[in-house]
Amino acid sequence: MGKVYDICIIGAGASGLAAAVAASSSGGRSVIILEKTDRPGHKIAVSGAGRCNLSNIRCEDKDSVLRFFSSIGLMTMTDREGRIYPHSEDARDVAECLTRAAVRQGVRIETFCEVTGASASTGGFLIVIKNKPPVAARRLLIAAGGKSAPKTGSTGDSYKLARSFGHTVNRLVPVLTGVETTENMIKLGLPGVRQKCLVTLTEKGAEKFKERGEVQFTDYGLSGICVFNMTRYMDISDFGTGLSEYRVILDFLPDTAEENVRNIYQNNLTLFQDSAAALCSIVKRPLAAVIAGRSDPAAELKHMIFRPVGLKGWGFAQVTRGGVPLSETDAEGGSRIVPGLYFAGEALDFDGPCGGYNLNHAWRTGMAAGRAMADDADQIGRASCRERV
To answer: Which residue from 154, 152, 148 is spatially nearest to 178, judged by alpha carbons?
Structure first.
């Protein structure tokens, strides 16, 4: 069989690279990463519109994440909303710092390695690679990402491997994505319009989500950070169906009571003698034209309702909801079913809002798994020395 690695990591994404750096930081352990695409950190390098919002001041364990990045030479900055970026605001620098740190510490990174299967064997794992010899390792981390952004190599490999080891995989849904609506935005003339408002999601009349932000009207429906965050609360059987009970309500004057809004509109209508002109300075002109054509424009300013019919799919989504339940792993991502097997990043059933929470989860779980696997490797090494003595 040849060399048996102490640690094999499937996936050179955020969690995989963080795990490799953490596992090899003190040296003495053989670590290999198997990456399906042509380079490590592919998805990192295009994240956050090329800026990589790598954490947030409100994230769990954000201090340990920032210490980790500082230790590998990455300088960060924090914006006024608490989002943390590389100081250069170039996502490629994050991928490069992680890759260089891993290589500097002796990690072997093999690209164009599509893992087609893995199994537990005596003393470790056998990892099968398409058109290449298999790899043997004592510890195995599945960190091959989720299903969002498949062009970067995230096609659900983590979940296939997890199931092969007997793990449950909770239903997979694309989240942090756009919402398709019944309303024809092109016909309404709204694509490209951006408007700040309060977004409320209801299901059968009950409120499920509320957030202020800027909504972007698109040719398919609604987008924007607050809309993306809203999709995490839409419980659907399939991302193309099952949304008939939901309503999205936009309030363009959330700080003004509806009675006062009505007074403002009526006063403006008296001044301008035109319904669309009466909305001048309240909302953008294309939106004003739509609202002016409704039976009660004042009410529309507080309760403009849209009916979702679907979510944008995997190619548009930023994150996967679903995956290996956290109940099936320990605090370090170690499997409670197969000893020596670990999970990190989107392989686990975790999804957070926009703003750095999901990448923070990837770094944090990758670091935890890497350190735990390193400790395991050290214990095996010490046990082997005692046996020889």
So the answer is: 148
